[in-house]
Write a structure and sequence with these properties.
The complex is a heterodimer of chains A (235) and B (780).
Chain A lengths: L1 E11 L4 E12 L4 E5 L6 H8 L7 E6 L2 E2 L5 H11 E4 L11 H11 L4 H14 L15 H13 L5 E5 L7 H16 L3 E5 L3 H4 L4 E6 L2 E6 L8 H4 L1
Parallel strand pairs in A: 3-8, 3-9, 6-7, 7-8
Antiparallel strand pairs in A: 1-2, 1-4, 4-5, 9-10
Helix pairs in contact in A: 3-4, 3-5, 5-6
Chain B lengths: L1 H27 L11 E10 L2 E5 L6 H8 L3 E8 L5 E4 L5 E4 L2 E4 L3 H4 L4 E3 L11 E5 H7 L9 E4 L4 E9 L12 E4 H7 L13 E7 L5 H15 L9 E9 L3 H4 L12 H30 L3 H9 L4 H38 L10 H28 L3 H6 L10 H33 L9 E6 L2 H11 L5 E7 L8 E7 L2 E12 L3 H4 L4 E4 L12 E5 H7 L8 E4 L2 E9 L14 E5 L11 E7 L4 H15 L7 E3 H7 L2 H35 L1 H9 L4 H36 L10 H27 L2 H6 L2
Parallel strand pairs in B: 6-11, 8-10, 17-22, 19-21
Antiparallel strand pairs in B: 1-2, 1-12, 1-13, 3-6, 3-12, 4-5, 4-9, 7-10, 8-11, 9-10, 14-23, 14-24, 15-23, 16-17, 16-20, 18-21, 19-22, 20-21
Helix pairs in contact in B: 1-8, 1-10, 8-11, 8-19, 10-11, 13-19, 13-21, 13-22, 19-22, 21-22
Classes of the chains: A alpha/beta (235), B alpha+beta (780).
Chain lengths: 235, 780
């Protein structure tokens, strides 16, 4: 489903050149739950941005659903992204001025769903995530756990193939954190591929496989039963 | 970029306010420079003819002296006359020039007013006949290298010699009296057949009196009543005519004059109020835009504030820091504003026909201005951003969480709304005023107004000579002469009407036989004169308005009496606009020109109807012809169409003023849009990032931003359009001949503001909307 070949990302300012990702190669199969771990500054978020089609790599190849997308324009990426990827962020990234319902509805608007279809889908997913009773509330009126649940609703409402989660429990206490992780796990069990960046070993334990990054390179891949991919093998 | 807009916005606003301040100051201090300004009054004449009131700022030459003699509280009196027509000044070598405001004045002029005589004796310089006092500029122009005192000038078409007995300072611009030269009053007595003894004759002197301090004007007016009866009203007993004398304070003339004739166009107090309101509004909006832009920019400084706080700065030190910055910006803007004023004052002066200058401003007013602009403005505009920034919480700002609170911007939106309303309303006003002025220019006036040249002569003989001479030019299609011309000066006279008491007031002109055809005047019934012969003197032709006024069913054959003569009506002309379109067409009677009493200094106007030749050739040919016919007389000619246009200079300057305000309002409103949209774009950066992650296109994000503004433009339209419609309907109603309200202007104003606002919002939001979502979200 996802395959990267020597993925490299270099950030340049006038004086400094920082290599955030250095020839990273790996693959993720459909239905997998993969955690990406590593210390601060190791390139986790950069990798997630590229995997999420929010950013392009400086070098290397990125195959997303069999398309080589590393050279895609923002418009092409946006098109692919909105149909296939759902995002869950550490700080929820809900729009404060919109109600729960409207926040969850957003991806469907951009996919051109009719308003009756949207209503049906949104209510379905809110029901499923047990947050229906809050649908007219605004994000700031909700607890952190509830906000993240809304964010997950938004991520799954368009039935994407993949959910990318960036530290989804980072702003939550352990009870709410577990709640969110259980949600992700159950989504995974229903067939959604999940890629999650995390600092937390506890959260990582929900994943089937852990990719560890250090200084922009993959150092180990744990728990992997089906694939052990290195740069060489990919070639 | 931000700072540039900020400086530019503030400096423009301050420049505008400064100019308005200069203007308002001038208007409010008009005529107040005279030492005893509050004790000086102008005698006015109020005529009640069968319930119809006429107010005139002039009186007869006899009224002033009689009042001075009769009432002890009147301690000084002076008269001015003949301000309304230019005088020709001849120099030794037969060069000549036309000088405006060559008044007749008395020596007491210098006792009452504080105009300064630079050379000569104020007590005596205007005592003798044929003496003249020149303004400094005119004196320098006429006698560039010699001493003018005692020199002789020839004045008027009769080239009467006058001796220079004084030089007076140039007329200050803040005076309702204008002069370039003063001829002594006794000269008027010598040269004109004017009546100096009766109160109802030659009513064309502006008479000023100075009252003893503390005099009761109302009482004086009451006391004048019996005198007025004794001098004039007894003549009209039983005729429904009554004349009363009023005393009008000269300090009120500029802004409160109810009179239709003044030496200088008057202003109105409402104009002063409107301007002051505009100044306040501009300053207020500039402050608001400044605050918006500063706060929008402050996001970039949030980390600085956070760090300073972590390092120990408290709210007071931070507020002081930011406030000082505002003061500095205000100061720089003020200086920029001053420079702007210096450069744009000539334009402003041109539009308002004023002579405002920064140099004339007294020193203390600079302190006030500085205090208002830098002090008050700085405090008001600086305090909110300073407080806003100083209140940033260090942890949040260091983390970059600045725009967390979803703001309710009711005040901001309200202010933006006001700016939209004002801009739209002004656009509509400008369009309507412009259309109305064009209507005035192009309206059918009831006579031929194009292709006519008008030449002034000073006697019937000269006029006849010129008419004959014009005959030989192939491009002259016809030529005629009259005592006036359309848009020229006409005299009102009371006439007796057959079967009607007490008669009516009517304009009266004398025209020759050819006039009707030269100007293409139309008859309604009856006939025109049958020639220029003597027996035509018994006849009169009136206009339709005259017939309406008299109520005659069958006007032909009726008689009109004036000055012991009876004239028989032989024809009724269709109404034509012999006065400007500000006036309804009023009664007019026409006598044959050859029968006009040949008073001294009463002009005869020759009108030439030309074709197949351009204007400069006409001027050239007339000039040559004139020089051949009258080598020693000054030529005064003009094109009728130009003269007619000049009747509407006030409307034109009103139009230009509106145009100026409109451009200004639009600039300010768009600065407001710029400020607010950048503020909102800044604030919505995170939201835009989220939307983009979720797949929103650039277009959908920009529309999202634009809708927020379009909403306010729509609300503004709901307020501005009816408001402007109402005001303009009212304005148009002041014209006797107005266009219908052009409804398309409503749509045009709405469209213009909508397009401008959308353009700015979209350009401003584009950068933010186009930022990669990774960056937008990283800001969080």
């Amino acid at each position: 489903m996802i395959r990267t070949v020597e993925l490299t990302k270099v950030f340049r300012t006038e004086e400094v050149e920082t290599t955030a990702l250095n020839k990273v190669s790996f693959g993720i199969n459909e239905g997998e739950f993969v955690a990406i771990m590593g210390p601060s500054g190791c390139g986790k978020s950069t990798l997630l941005n590229i995997l999420g089609l929010l950013d392009n790599p400086s070098d290397g190849q990125y195959f997303f659903l069999d398309h080589e997308v590393s050279g895609y324009s923002e418009k092409q990426r946006a098109n692919l992204r909105k149909r296939n990827i759902g995002f869950v962020f550490q700080n929820f990234n809900l729009i404060d001025e919109l109600s729960v319902f409207e926040n969850v509805e957003l991806p469907l608007i951009y996919l051109g769903y009719s308003s009756s279809e949207r209503r049906q889908r949104v209510e379905e997913v809110l029901e499923q995530m047990q947050i229906m009773h809050r649908k007219n509330h605004f994000p700031l009126q909700l607890s952190g756990g509830q906000q993240q649940r809304v964010a997950v609703c938004r991520a799954v409402v368009a039935k994407p193939h993949i959910i990318l989660a960036d530290e989804p429990t980072g702003n939550l206490d352990s009870t709410h954190g577990d709640e969110v992780m259980n949600l992700l796990e159950s989504l995974n069990k229903n067939g959604t591929t999940i890629i999650m960046v995390t600092h937390s070993q506890r959260d990582a334990s929900y994943a089937q496989r852990i990719i560890r990054l250090f200084d922009g390179q993959i150092v180990t891949e744990d728990k992997s039963t089906e694939f052990v991919l290195t740069a060489e093998a990919a070639q | 970029m931000f700072s540039l807009i900020n400086f530019f916005g503030l400096a423009t606003a301050m420049a505008v306010c400064l100019m308005i301040l200069l203007f308002v100051h001038r208007e409010l201090t008009f005529d107040r420079f005279h030492k005893d300004a509050h004790d000086i009054y102008r005698i006015s004449l109020h005529m009640n003819i069968q319930g119809e009131m006429t107010d005139e700022p002039v009186s007869s030459h006899a009224t002033g002296p009689d009042i001075l003699q009769e009432f002890p509280e009147v301690i000084e009196m002076t008269r001015l006359s003949h301000w309304y027509e230019p005088v020709t000044v001849w120099q030794d070598d037969n060069r000549h020039m036309s000088v405006e405001f060559g008044l007749y004045a008395e020596s007491t002029f210098f006792d009452i007013f504080s105009f300064r005589l630079i050379r000569g004796n104020p007590q005596t310089s205007l005592d003798d006949p044929f003496t003249v006092v020149l303004s400094e500029t005119l004196a320098n122009e006429l006698f560039p290298k010699t001493d003018p005192m005692g020199k002789v000038l020839r004045l008027g078409n009769r080239q009467q010699p006058y001796r220079v007995t004084g030089i007076i300072e140039d007329c200050p611009s803040g005076s309702h009296i204008r002069y370039n030269l003063l001829r002594s009053y006794p000269s008027l007595l010598e040269t004109s057949g004017a009546n100096f003894y009766e109160w109802d004759a030659n009513i064309n002197a502006m008479t000023y009196v100075k009252l003893a301090p503390g005099s009761d004007v109302a009482q004086l007016k009451e006391k004048t009543r019996p005198l007025t009866y004794e001098k004039v009203n007894y003549k009209f007993e039983g005729m429904g005519v009554n004349i009363s004398i009023g005393y009008f304070p000269i300090t009120d003339i500029r802004l409160h004059s109810p009179f239709s004739i003044e030496m200088v166009e008057t202003g109105t107090i409402s104009k002063v109020w409107i301007f002051s309101a505009v100044a306040l509004f501009v300053l207020f909006i500039a402050g608001f835009n400044y605050v918006n832009l500063t706060i929008a920019k402050s996001g970039k400084r949030a980390r600085e504030v956070g760090l300073r706080k972590v390092l120990g700065a408290n709210k007071i030190t931070l507020t002081t820091q930011f406030y000082t910055e505002t003061l500095l910006i205000t100061c720089i803007s003020f200086i920029l504003g001053l420079l702007l004023v210096e450069f744009t004052l000539p334009v402003f002066n041109h539009i308002l026909d004023t002579q405002l200058s920064l140099k004339d401003t007294p020193w203390w007013s600079w302190l006030v201005i500085l205090f208002i602009f830098v002090g008050v403005f700085g405090i008001l505009a600086g305090i909110y951003p300073a407080w806003f920034m100083a209140a940033f919480q260090p942890i949040k700002t260091l983390k970059g969480e600045l725009w967390n609170k979803p703001g309710k911007f009711q005040l901001r939106n309200l202010l933006l709304l006001i700016q939209f309303v004002v801009s739209m309303a002004l656009i509509i006003c400008t369009l309507v005023v412009t259309l109305q002025i064009r209507h005035l220019y192009t309206r059918d006036l009831g006579f031929k107004s194009q292709g006519l040249v008008v030449v002034e002569t000073d006697s019937y003989e000269d006029a006849t000579l010129l008419l004959h001479a014009l005959d030989s030019y192939p491009w002259v299609r016809s030529q005629a002469a009259g005592s006036s011309f359309p848009g020229g000066h006409v005299y009102m006279e009371g006439v007796e009407i057959q079967d009607m008491e007490p008669g009516i007031m009517t304009s009266r002109i004398w025209l020759d036989y050819n006039y009707k055809d030269a100007l293409d005047l139309q008859m309604y019934e009856g006939r025109w004169f049958s020639g220029d012969g003597e027996f035509e003197a018994e006849y009169v032709i009136v206009n339709q308005a005259f017939v309406r006024k008299t109520g005659w069913d069958d006007p032909i054959g009726k008689t009109v009496g004036r000055g012991g003569y009876e004239y028989q009506v032989i024809g009724v002309m269709k109404d034509f606009h012999y006065q400007s379109l500000h006036h309804d067409i009023e009664p007019l009677m026409v006598n044959i020109l050859s029968a006009r009493p040949n008073y001294l200094e009463m002009p005869y106007w020759v009108v030439g109807n030309y074709s197949d030749i351009n204007e400069s050739e006409v001027i050239l040919a007339i000039g040559e012809l004139w020089h051949d016919l009258f080598p020693n007389k000054a030529l005064n000619n003009h094109f009728l169409s130009e003269h007619l246009e000049s009747q509407y200079v006030n409307e034109r300057s009103f139009g230009r003023l509106f145009m100026g305000f409109t451009i200004l309002a639009i600039i300010i409103a768009m600065l407001g849009v710029l400020g607010l949209s950048s503020f909102i774009a800044q604030q919505k950066q995170k939201e835009m990032g989220i939307r983009k992650v979720l797949g929103a296109s650039l277009f959908s994000i920009l529309s999202e931003m634009a809708i927020g503004f379009v909403k306010w433009v729509l609300v503004a339209a709901l307020i501005a359009l009816p408001l402007a419609y109402w005001y303009m309907e009212k304005w148009l109603a002041e014209f006797a001949y107005a266009i219908g309200f052009p409804t398309w202007t409503l749509l045009a104003a709405f469209g213009a503001i909508l397009i401008l606002a959308l353009t700015i919002v979209i350009i401003q939001s584009y950068r933010t909307a186009n930022t990669s979502p990774v960056e937008s979200l990283a800001c969080e």
